[in-house]
Amino acid sequence: MDDPVILRVENIVKTIGGQRILDDVSFSVKKGHLKVLIGPSGAGKSTLLSCINFLSPPDSGTISLDGKAVDGKSRKELLALRQQVGMIFQDFNLFDHLSALDNVRVALVKVKGLDKRAATNRAMEELARVGLADKSTLYPAQLSGGQKQRVSVARALAMDPKVLLLDEPTSALDPELIGEVLTVIRDLADLGMTMVMATHQISFSAALADEFLFMERGRIVERGAPSQLLARDSGSRTQSFCAKLSELAGDGHCEIAPAPRA
Amino acid sequence: MEGFYSAAQASWEAMPYILGGLWWTAGLIIGAMLVGFILGVPLAVLHVYGRTLTRKAVAGYVWLFRGVPILVQLYLFYFGIMAYLSELPALSFLPLSSGFLSAVIVLGLTSAAYQSQIFRGAMASLPAGQLKAARALGMSDAVAIRSIILPQALRLAIPAWSNEYSILLKDSALAFTIGVLEVMARTRSVAATTHQPLPLSILAGALFFFLTWAGIKILKRLEAKVRIPGYAHQGSL
């Protein structure tokens, strides 16, 4: 595959409170690909994602989007980068004082400068895409967790991001609500959205991911195709981590190595 | 006893005059709350999001106006700063020798110090994710604060704000010391002729109580009106 590289992350180092959270992390994502970050809590997955859009600026290293390096020093460049990099948070972070429609619309008006009607149309389109057109007037406190996360996906997509960063998008959800969010993510992958996702949903993401990046103590210690890393005899850290998770959950979802993505 | 009745009679006759003071009291309060709000919001923003030096400057302002008694400030402003400024020919078009103006400025600056801390607390109590999400969408901090942070923080601040109103209302009575003809000043001047301060004090107390009650009622209504759907009533103040 010769898809162009959209996002390149090189030699990222991040220290917080004297502790090295990210230690020389590099990877790149091609257009339409999905990279999945796996690993124990505290491995640095969230920090890595928030270094990419400088919500937590890296101490050193380079972030390039579409071949253009951004160092975070120029405010204008930084805001432009963030416009083009969507982010989905574990706890949704919907704007509590705005309806679902306004949550999606606010940045279209305030950042992209769309007029109100164009912004409304676009926002409604995105809400429809995540199946929430009929909930547009409801406020976050009136939505379920799964609905909130779908609104936050609509909010990110409305900005036409080149890359979507997903930070454990289903970890704060009740088990029965995870499915609806995973369905939305699967649709996005099918539509060719470029994504980097941190998740513990290993069997789900194995079916979609182009590559697994296994992180531990601030480094990427393993990378490869899901089927390869999850093969029962692979002896990989990924496999044993997954086996441990599935043992805890009792669902045995590491037993079968999933088929590679068609 | 006869003296008391004639004093009560005189007090009764002075009622319209004393009630007329309500306009001045209301003017002081509304002016001071507005000055306090217009200065308090940016002060709070700078206190929370400013650089170290800015934050220290705001903290200094707050300490100054919280620390100096309002009576002292009124004298300093009215007999000092404003008296000096009103001598300047270039400023002669301004009503600088008005006690009302001095009182509104002093009460407003003091209220700004208190209000800034109310808003600061409200902003600090919002989840950090709100600002993060706004930034992640490409909003500048100025836009994020204006469209995401303040609309939520100001809602949260209303109960504490109505407290500030009731305190400021009673502080406004000090304006009589620099000749503002508000409720307290008129009460005292009538009492000076009747020599019976008691009925007049009761009347003044009742008027201030009524203003407190009415103001808080209005703010509670505002709080209900801007309540975010789906959230329980916040507190029961």
Report on this model:
The complex is a heterodimer of chains A (262) and B (237). Chain A has a domain at 5-92 and 162-249: Rossmann fold, CATH 3.40.50. Helix content of chain A is 36%, strand content 24%. Chain A is built from nine helices and ten strands. Chain B is an all-alpha fold and 237 residues long. Chain B has one domain (2-6, 13-225): MetI-like (MetI-like fold, Orthogonal Bundle). Chain B has nine helices and no strands. In chain B, helix 2 runs antiparallel to helix 3 and helix 4 (70-87) packs across helix 5. Chains A and B meet through helix 2, strand 6, helix 3 and helix 5 of A and helix 6 and helix 7 of B. Chain B: Keywords: Amino-acid transport, Cell membrane, Membrane, Transmembrane, Transmembrane helix, Transport. Chain B: Residues 22-220 form the ABC transmembrane type-1 domain.
Give me a quick take on this structure.
The complex is a heterodimer of chains A (262) and B (237). Chain A has 262 residues and is an alpha/beta fold.
For this entry, give a set of tags.
heterodimer, A: 262 residues, alpha/beta, Rossmann fold, B: 237 residues, mainly alpha, globular, MetI-like_sf (chain B), transport (chain B), MetI-like (chain B)
Uncertain residue segments of chain B: none
Q: Note the main sheet of chain A.
A: 6 strands, mixed
CATH superfamily of the domain at 5-92 and 162-249 in chain A, called what? P-loop containing nucleotide triphosphate hydrolases
Strand content of chain A: 15-25%
- What CATH architecture of chain B do you see? Orthogonal Bundle
Mean pLDDT of chain A: 90
What can be said about the biggest beta sheet of chain B? none
Number of DSSP E strands of chain A: 10
The percent of residues in helical segments of chain A reads: 25-40%
Cα separation of the termini of chain B: 44 Å
Poorly predicted ranges of chain A? 256-262
* Total helical elements of chain B: 9
Per CATH, the superfamily of chain B is MetI-like
* Domains of chain B (count): 1
Secondary structural class of chain B:
mainly alpha
Radius of gyration of chain A: 18 Å
CATH third-tier fold name of the domain at 5-92 and 162-249 in chain A: Rossmann fold
**How big a fraction of the residues of chain B is strand?**
under 5%
